[in-house]
Every structure is written in structure tokens, then in C-alpha cells.
Amino acid sequence: MPLALLALAVGAFGIGTTEFVMMGLLPDVADDMDISLPSAGHLVSAYALGVVIGAPLLAAVTARMSRRTVLIGLMALFVIGNALSAAAPGEGSLLAARFLSGLPHGAFFGVGAVVATGMVAPERKARSVSLMFLGLTVANIVGVPAATAMGQQLGWRATFLGVSAIGVAAVAALLFLIPRDHAPAPATGLRGELSALRSLPVWLALGTTVAGFGALFSAYSYITPMLTDAAGFADASVTLLLALFGVGATVGNLLGGRLADHSLRATLFGGLTSLVLVLALFPLLMRTEITAALAVALLGAAAFVTGSPLQLMVMEKASAAPSLASSANQAAFNLANAGGAWIGGLTLAAGLGATSPALAGSALAALGLLVAGTAYAVDRRAPRPGRERVIATHVPATPETARHG
């Protein structure tokens, strides 16, 4: 695999760290700024809103720019947003800085996926995307715990300065490791990119992302009360258990990338089916500490097996203009985050028990499987060569791919 993929992974590591570390720092921020915990929780929403708005917007306005330049610019914006977060004097300015930090998130992953697949031979496209996403999953194992500990020891502002430093390292890596001719300006421009969003298969692929990852966040948003109330873990054990989720997500991500290079659609169906079963078994698995720990790891693995297939499915359906659609998939991921958490919360509010969000997640994963099946049926009604076996090579070839093929 090209060394340039390391630059994308470093950027993904920084983005994953800043996205998830806020959950652990909320009490510190609330105390320091003398605001309530629910008010501090708006900082999580501000970042997610930035992702949802920034992903399609920035991908669209940079449509005629070199993708290498776009990636560097997005990571520079990421550095600025986190530096402003560290310096924010009050709640309002911190909300604005978190929103700014979220703007480049989706576009970075979307454009990065296009660049990653252009660096490798056709049969390695899914693995190239999974290696970029590796930075995101490793952030849950190393970055988030380390950044949380830094914030607790040195103050939450130090955490965002540290994340800014990661962003600077990513900018340097992008400058030195991605050659200019590996990410030229796309020929389609804004009109071509926007045309991708008129495709029903693209919307079905995005719908699969919303339902499939909504299933994950329906359960994961409430994993702490499940582990403490249902499985009987002490509060101090939760951080280690969440690292297990990161391990599972990393394994699932790498496995999904390898399998999707052989059969993208079969990997997607298999991952969603696994997610349905794992979440449906949560009430049983949460009865003992050992099986609960296993459930956390399996949840990460089952969910992230689908990550690379979903990203490539969107790119394949928008083959003439993949950047905007690929970025929109990241917006869909964050909609899944908000929607899944809301649905899981409804089950708790209804008094259905600590593990009820997982059952709601199982239903959402089943819905994702249904949407993916509908997309397959639509494909079958529009015959084309190779339609029986959708693989990553359907992502359009680029001059870079031709040189590596």
C-alpha cells in the first residue's frame, strides 16, 4: 500500500480524537465555564452539525480544486477550529469553534476516500479506504483515552491544543507524502458533482448508512448504563471497555476492507446481518461481565465491517462525480449518530430497560438490510456488465490507478 495512505490515516486519527473526546471532557468544560452538563452537551451537537453542513458544502465549493490541495486546506481548517476551541473565552465562542472544527470532517473523509482509491490497483480499493479509516478506529483505542487523560490532568484546553498539533502533523504528512499528480483537479466540476445527488441508487446507499450506523449509535450512545446497570461493571471499568469497542472496530474495519475487495455487496449484507444479531443478543450478553465485554467488542466489529463497503457503494453509484457523494455519506453517518441516539433514548424514556436501545438498534440494522436489499433490486432492474458481482473496481479508474494497475 502507498505510504501516502499514512497521511490520510494521521488526519483521520486527529478527526476521530476531537470528535469523541468531548464526551469525556464535558464535566470539566461545564465546571470551568460554569454551565450545566446538558448545556455542555450542546458542544457535541455543534460539532455534528458542522459535519452535516460542511461535508456536502465544502465538497461542492472545492469541486474544481486539486484534491490534494483540498485535503491540505481541510486539515488546516481543522487545526484552526481546534486552536480556537482551546482559546475560547466563553460558551458561545466554544460552540462556534466546535462547529468550525466539524466543518472539514466529512469532506476530508469523502475526498480522502476518492484519493485513496486512486492510489491503488482496482482489487485493493476497499482496503485503501479501510486503511484511511484505521486512523478513526485507532483514535478510539489510543487517541480518545490519552486526550481525555490529558484534559483531566492539564485542563480541557490542553486537549484541543494537542489535537491541533496532530492536525499540523497531518498537514505536513499530506504535503510530503501525497504527490501533486496523485490528486489532480477533477474534470466534472460543481455541476457534475451535484448531478450525483439526483441518482436513486446514491440515495439508497446513503439511506443504508443512516439506518445501519443509526443502529450502532442507538446502542453505543447508552453503552455505559448498559455496562453498569445491566452487566454490573463499576464506573471505573467503562473506559477500558470502550477501548475494547475500538479494538473490535479496528478489526472489523480491516476485515471489511479485505472482504469488500472480493465482494462488496456480500460484505455489506453480511455486516448488517451480523449487526442485527449482535444487537438482538445484547439483553442476554449483558447478564455477565465476560459476555458483556465480548458484546462491546462484537458491536464495534459488526458495525465497522460495513464502513468501507458503504463508502465504496456510494462512490460506485456516483462514479462520474464521487467526491460530493462520498462526503455526503459522512454527513449521513452523523445523521445516524444523532438519530440513533434519539431513538435509543426513546426506549429508555419508555421504561423498557437498560438494554432496550440495543433492541431498537437491531430493528434499525434490519431496516438498513431492507434498504440495501432494495438497492440491489434496483440494480438488477438496470442490467450492466458485472452487475451480479458488485466489487470495488466499479469505482472509476483514474490516471493514478492506471499507473498502479
UniProtKB/TrEMBL annotation:
Cell location: Cell membrane
Gene Ontology cellular component terms for the protein in this record: plasma membrane
Nucleotide-binding as UniProt keyword: no
Signal sequence segment: none
Taxonomic superkingdom: Bacteria
Record key words, sorted: Cell membrane, Membrane, Transmembrane, Transmembrane helix
GO molecular function: transmembrane transporter activity
Main localization of the protein described in the UniProt heading: membrane
Membrane topology field: Multi-pass membrane protein
Stretches assigned to the Major facilitator superfamily (MFS) profile domain: 4-380
Pfam family, one: MFS_1
Transmembrane segments: 42-63, 70-90, 102-122, 129-150, 156-179, 200-224, 236-255, 267-286, 292-310, 331-352, 358-378
UniProt keyword rRNA-binding present: no
Stored PANTHER family: CHLORAMPHENICOL EFFLUX PUMP RV0191, PURINE EFFLUX PUMP PBUE
UniProt name for this protein: MFS transporter
Organism per entry: Streptomyces fumanus
